[in-house]
């Protein structure tokens, strides 16, 4: 496939997205409209946005590579995402909507009475989401390298246009483009899977059997690593700003809950598609090398060039849909959680767009220094899980958003939990050692212990006074 032709077609697609974004931007009148779509999303829009947030490069390309290496164990990453969505669907999503805040970090000021912790929580979220944004760019680069389509100048130009269309219309435009992109993803990959099922039924059964029974998938597997791949995404989904912003933007808590459960079921079933093609690539004996991908290698060698083009656009659509939601979340953290100059409504909107553009450019620069998609995602999850998860879980279970006079939770507990977990994680990461489990889980246990100690200290001080 000719790289210039490919990028020319994709640039045309980006121009269409920019046109949609420009049209949507005319209805964006405030910063709340820009970041939260006026808090008016319905079931369909919420579900699409939640699925798009997760269905990126790490999902399709990452799962196919994990399936190539570990067979059915490649689903553990998906199990983690779906478990997180189920926890959200069973109550946490509606609680997030009821808090009526703009960012997750804002809860630290509202309930723990600490502007400093709000900024620190926001900073960990920004660093984490920047890693996830970079992972999407890495995924697109791996995709193009696999097909010998990679051209640095055209690649940067492509992502520049993607950032521009996200910047123009904000979250409203992102939701509209997600609908188009997700439709393309489902149409391409489900069609190919169903066609394989119909015309190569015996081979399809052989692929699933191969993934289940072949001992080569157990040769290099480490249970600790696999469990970590499942648990970390589940925990992170409870605190990540790009998911939370969807719930903040929903019409009500009930819609938020139902949409989270629907997204969980959809992602679990859709994951069978990249799993199948990853295992098939291994069964056919394809060597994917260091920079290639199992799914793309399979289609490039086994299917017509038109199919390869459709798959490429499908994967890129998945990557872009996730990247834009993350980009919006990072910008929201920066604009909402830090003491930026007091400006008029129109100037705040301009500032928000400038911030989103700059964040996107920084993400492109960072992406050129990493290559492992899943590992970048897991590393990005680790810092906020180690530092802010415990304090937020306490709010999810015990805070009452309906009370006008908010009950203040233990500030001491939040401080000790944040710094105890963060310092433990960074220390274990630096020493490349674990105490009991992985560095993330060990740090999380320390964070929990510190929260309990801080809570007891505050209780003792109140009793004493």
From TrEMBL:
Key word Transmembrane helix present: yes
One Gene Ontology molecular-function label: transmembrane transporter activity
Keyword Transport (UniProt): yes
Transmembrane annotation, as ranges: 6-24, 44-64, 70-90, 120-138, 150-168, 180-201, 260-279, 306-330, 350-369, 381-400, 412-431, 443-460
This protein's GO CC annotations: plasma membrane
Coiled-coil region list: none
Compartment annotation: Membrane
PANTHER family linked to this entry: SODIUM-SOLUTE SYMPORTER-RELATED, SODIUM/PROLINE SYMPORTER-RELATED
Homology family: Belongs to the sodium:solute symporter (SSF) (TC 2.A.21) family.
UniProt-recorded name of the protein: Na+/proline symporter
